[in-house]
C-alpha cells in the first residue's frame, strides 16, 4: 500500500494594496484611446444581443411547461439543459429575422464608436 504524503498548508495570502491612479489635471477629459470601428464586430455583437434578449423573453414561457408528464419525465438533467435549449431557440429565431432589434442596436453602437473616435 502506498503512503500518501500530506499536503502542506497554504501560505497565508497577502492582500494587495490598491494603487492610486495618476492625478488628472482639472478640466481635462479622460477617455479611452480611440480604436478603429469594425462594422463586422459591431454587427455580430448586435445580433448576439438580440438573441440574448429573445432568450430572456422565452425563458418564462418554458418555466410554465409541466414536464413531469412528458415521455422524458423532466428531472434534474432536463432542468440543467433547458437554459441551453432556450438559448438555441433564441439564436434560431434571431437568425431567421428575430424581433428587428439588431439593426437599431447596430446603428446605436456605430454612432457611439464614431463619437468616441472624434
Structural write-up:
The chain is mainly alpha-helical and 118 residues long. The protein has a domain at 39-117. It has 3 helices and no strands. The protein is elongated and about 65 Å long.
SS field, number of helical segments: 3
Please outline the major beta sheet: none
Order of helices and strands: HHH
Strand content: under 5%
What is the structural class? mainly alpha
What is the average of the pLDDT values?
78
Low-confidence stretches: 7-14
Instruction: Name the helicity range.
Output: 40-55%
Describe the secondary structure blueprint for this structure.
Layout: H1 39-63, H2 76-95, H3 102-117
Helix pairs in contact: 1-2, 1-3
What would you say about this model in short?
The chain has 3 helices and no strands. The chain has 118 residues and is mainly alpha-helical.
Please tag this protein with its features.
single chain, 118 residues, 0% strand, mainly alpha, 52% helix, 3 helices
